[in-house]
Amino acid sequence: MTSSSKSRSKRKASPASVSSEDLEMSPALKQEVMEELKQLFMKGDLPEAKRRDNIVMTRLWDTDLRIVDALIALEIFKSRSEAVAFLTHEGIQAKSELVDTILPAIEQIEEIKRQTREQAVTALHRSKRKNKE
């Protein structure tokens, strides 16, 4: 381990402290880092050819955007869209237990809303008929 890599490993770099200088590295090191990152990020189940038809506008924190841009600079992803789609999917997968709990509850809520809407419409129609008589 070189003295510069020792000093880098001693200081804890937060996403906010990543600078363009930190991303500059020798071609061999860049290739090694790229391969490791590709292996890390491509463990997910998002096939490259999987079509994404839904557009979502979002605001990101500066630190998160720097990470997304760094992944693009390292050629892990081709675009911000691709990177954010992948990271969103991975986040949902990582919280699958929570999602599995929430989805049935959402379905129940939607069913209650549907039933309540039907009852309200029926009550309104009855009210209109009474007013006409």
Which runs of at least 5 residues are low in confidence (pLDDT < 50)?
1-17
Choose one word for the global shape: elongated
How many strand units? 0
Q: How would a textbook summarize the main sheet? A: none
Average pLDDT, all residues: 77
Order of helices and strands: HHHHHH
N-end to C-end Cα span: 91 Å
Question: How many domains?
Answer: 2
Radius of gyration: 25 Å
Report the portion of residues in β strands. under 5%
Question: How much helicity do the residues have?
Answer: 55-70%
Which structural class fits the helix and strand makeup?
mainly alpha
Tally of alpha and pi helices: 6
Which structural traits does this protein have?
133 residues; 2 domains; 0% strand
What's the structural blueprint in terms of helices and strands?
Elements: H1 3-10, H2 20-23, H3 27-41, H4 62-73, H5 80-94, H6 96-132
Question: Can you describe what's shown?
Answer:
The protein is built from 6 helices and no strands. By secondary structure, the protein is mainly α. The protein folds into 2 domains: 77 residues, no CATH class; 38 residues. The longest helix is centred in the last third of the chain and has 37 residues.
Explain briefly what this protein structure is:
With 133 residues, the chain is mainly alpha-helical. It has helices at residues 3-10, 20-23, 27-41, 62-73, 80-94, 96-132. It starts with a helix and ends with a helix.
